Amino acid sequence: MARLDRILRIGARWLALVGFVGLLALAIMMTLDAILRTFFSAPLHGVNDVSAVVMAVVIASCIPANLSDRKNISVEVLGAILGVRANELLTLFSSFVIFGFVFLMAVQFVPFVEGMYTSGRRTWVLAWPVWPWWSVATACLYYAAIIQASNVIKDTIAVFDSFGPRASGGGTVTSDKGAR
Question: 176 pLDDT exceeds 90?
Answer without folding.
Answer: no
